[in-house]
Amino acid sequence: MAQNYHRKGPDGLQKLFLYLILIDWFVLLYLSSQITNISFRHGAFVSILLGAFNLLLVGLCFKRARRGGDGYLLYPVIFGALLSFIMVFYFFLFKY
Questions:
Q1: Has this prediction a pTM greater than 0.85?
Q2: Structural domain total, the chain
Q3: For 48-96, what is each residue's pLDDT tens digit?
Q4: Domain membership flag for residue 61
C-alpha cells in the first residue's frame, strides 16, 4: 500500500531550476548588451554554449512541467530560448 508523502518546506530541485532560469536570463541580458563588442570566435563559442544550456534547460523544463502546477515554468524558458535563437541569428547573419 502506498503512503502519502507530505513535503515539509520548499523543493530544493525547484529552487535550483528557478536559479538556472535566472542565470539564463542574466546571460541573455549580458550578451545582448555586449553582442556588438565581441569577436567572431568568442561569439561562436558563446552561441554554442548558450544553445547547449538552453537545450538542457528546455529538456529539464518539459520533464519538470509534467507535474501538476509547474506549467508556469514553460513560459520564461521557451521565451529565453527563442530570444537566444534570435540573438545567435543576428550575430551570424548581420554582424559577420
A1: no
A2: 1
A3: 999 899 999 988 888 777 766 677 888 888 898 899 889 888 888 887 7
A4: yes
